[in-house]
Each structure stands twice: as C-alpha cells, then as structure tokens.
Amino acid sequence: MKLIVTNDDGIEAQGLLTLARLASRWGDVVVVAPAEHQSGISHQLTNNRPIRVDALSENRYRVWGTPADCARLALNELAVDGDWVLSGINHGANLGVDVYESGTVAAAREAVFHGCKAMALSHYTIDDRPVDWQLAAARLQPVLERLFRQNLDAGCFLNINLPHPDHGETRLETRTAPVDTSPFKNTFTAEGNGYLHTGVYHERPRKTGSDVDLCFDGHITMSTIRV
C-alpha cells in the first residue's frame, strides 16, 4: 500500500513527521507537503504560475503551494499510484465548520476528487498544554489499523480529530459523529488600523453528540464527509 502524507502546517511540522512515521507501519510513505505554514487556507489552488517542487530525498517533496496543490500534484505527478492521502496531523482541531476553512481538510477533499481514498487528521489543543506527539501516535494507531481494513464509500473522506485530555491513557473511545454546523462565534478587538480576531475556540457552540461535543469531552471523533 502506498500512503501519501501531507498537511497544512508545513513539511517540518511535528504532526506530519509523526503521521509519516506511523503510516510506515502499513506501507510505503510518500511525503508531499507545503514548504510553508498554510493553516486556514481552505481549498485554494495555484493555477497561474509554476509550482516549485523540491525533492528533499527519496519520496519526500517540499511544495511551494497549498495543501490542495500537494494532493493534486501527488496524485497526478509524484505518486500516481497512491492508495490513500493522509493529511495531518494538524496542530489544532478541525471540527464543525472548520471543514470548510481548513487546508488540512482541503487536501483530503482534493484527493477524493481524483478518486483516491483520503482522511484528514487533527489534534485538538487546550490552552498552553503541549501536544505529546508520541502519545498521539499511540492513540491513533488502532484507529488507522481498523480503517485501513474497511471500505470507504466513493466520493467520501474521513475527518478525524484527537482530543487533548489531561491524562496519558492510550486507548480512547472512537465515536462516529456528525459535523456540528453551528457557526463559530467571531469576536474582534480593535488594534491599530484594523481588527484582531479574538474568538476562543473551546467556547464555540457544541450540539450534543456532534463532533465538537464529543471531541471536547475526550473522545476521538470520526466524521464521514461526502463531496
């Protein structure tokens, strides 16, 4: 099995390095990731200029473009026989309406457009608590083990979010959840000649049983997104 790994935090991000190492348990890994941080860029594509690609080593490519560019280039030029596109692990959750704004999610969505199976993977973060990436990999491993053995409906991809509990247990319950479409409460503070966004992520609305609600309560959430 060939697994394409990308993200929107950039090719040196710890979440991507963690995911690439974990994915190597199940097959050959090809990293095709942005050169720079691209968080919140959604599904932007580069069509008006050449996209520079640096081959850093065998099966490791740095792309001077967006996450969706990375998925498109991987499946059409750099790893055309890829079986899965895995996007992440994003530093920060992609829950609810984030799926429309996230570059991480956009890479998975672009992969589905090209007929490839895909999932976006993110890690919710609370305040200044650092992410333990080794623990995140241990929590994610049984989830991927199961998903790689299952079928995924055509035209769909998975959006998976790890919680950030204050304990080191590796076995967390995985819950299938609908995407919470409640709008994020946006607040701004005047600063200079403009406004600084000051919305608090973990104070967002949470419908009972939704991805936001369950992830905030300490569960790994999995949502199926149809394109």
Q: Which regions have little confidence, pLDDT < 50, spanning 5+ residues? A: none
Strand content: 25-35%
Question: Helix amount, in percent?
Answer: 10-25%
Note the main sheet: 9 strands, mixed
Q: Quote the distance from N terminus to C terminus.
A: 24 Å
Estimated radius of gyration: 17 Å
According to CATH, the fold-level topology is Stationary-phase Survival Protein Sure Homolog, Chain: A
Q: How would you state the average pLDDT, rounded?
A: 96
Number of DSSP helical runs: 5
Number of strands: 11
Query: What's the architecture in CATH terms?
Result: 3-Layer(aba) Sandwich
* Helix-strand sequence: EHEEEHEHEHEEEEHE
Please tell me the total number of domains: 1
Structural class by helix and strand composition? alpha/beta
Spatial sequence of strands, sheet with the most strands: 3-4-2-1-5-6-7-11-8
Q: Which CATH class?
A: Alpha Beta
Please, what is the CATH homologous superfamily?
Survival protein SurE-like phosphatase/nucleotidase
Overall geometry: globular
Structure notes:
There is one protein chain. 24% of the residues lie in helices and 27% in strands. The strands form two sheets. The protein has a nine-stranded mixed sheet with strand order 3-4-2-1-5-6-7-11-8, sandwiched between helices. Strands 9-10 form a two-stranded antiparallel ribbon. Strand 3 (53-57) and strand 4 form a beta hairpin. With 227 residues, the chain is of the alpha/beta class.
